[in-house]
Sequence to fold (275 residues):
Amino acid sequence: MIKRRFWVDFVLSGATLIWLILALAPLLWLLSLSLKTQLQAFATPPLLIFKPTFVNYVDLLQNTDFARYFGNSIVVALGSVSLSLLLGVPAAYAFSRQGFRGKNATLVWILVVRMTPAMTYVIPFFMIYKTVGLLDTWASLIILYTLFTLALVIWTMQAFFDEVPRSLEEAARVDGATVGQSFVHIVLPVSGPGIAATAVLCFLFSWNEFLFALVMTRNAARTAPLAIVNFMAYEGAEWGRIAAGSVLVLLPVLIFGFVTRKYLVQGLLGGAIKG
Fold:
């Protein structure tokens, strides 16, 4: 029995290691490519041992507008996440605590907005933005991203609010707290992991989105993913800049996920387990 368990653990560990290598291999290759010169990048066979250089990062930040586009991505992503949480969390609480006619139908329609292909919204919003002068602005992307992430916030946070015992709010009401005070001082702190998990998912969508940014922006509000694609030309691709830009685009996601990892795990588990 012990021998059999040893081999089962050995096979599972080996399979996990292989999966980990396959999952990390593209990222490690991307990182190594960003630290190579043009000659090293196209060496045959590929160089596994080389002297790292930051020339691609220096070139990217000094000789291109990537830093400005990177800043646009941060502003748009944080703006859409903040607006989605500001609007979606109270709405989710209302759906969780209040019963009204058409509640389920309203939730379904909110979900339909998220399920509809993004391409459906491109032309109408482009015409609207062109008319009101919002093309190539931060606001144009923040509004669109909020439209999609708001449904995610409402549906996700409603599940968390459903799990918060109503007795906590009733006890606060007995002590004289209003509905708003109960929500701010009782429900929100308890639902912190859920809010963190939802914020991470919204940030990932806003940070990586490409279609709306491609159509709605030109230069002033261009985001980092678009800037990376622009390094690919008909004559050839600037792989050093592409690799360096891709690594820099990965960093905020990794940092944001690392900082909120504790709450992210708690939030995802909390949304999956009832009672």
The chain is about 80% helix and 0% strand. The beta strands are 232-233, 236-237. The domain at 48-272 is CATH 1.10.3720.10 (MetI-like fold). The first strand starts at residue 232 and ends at 233.
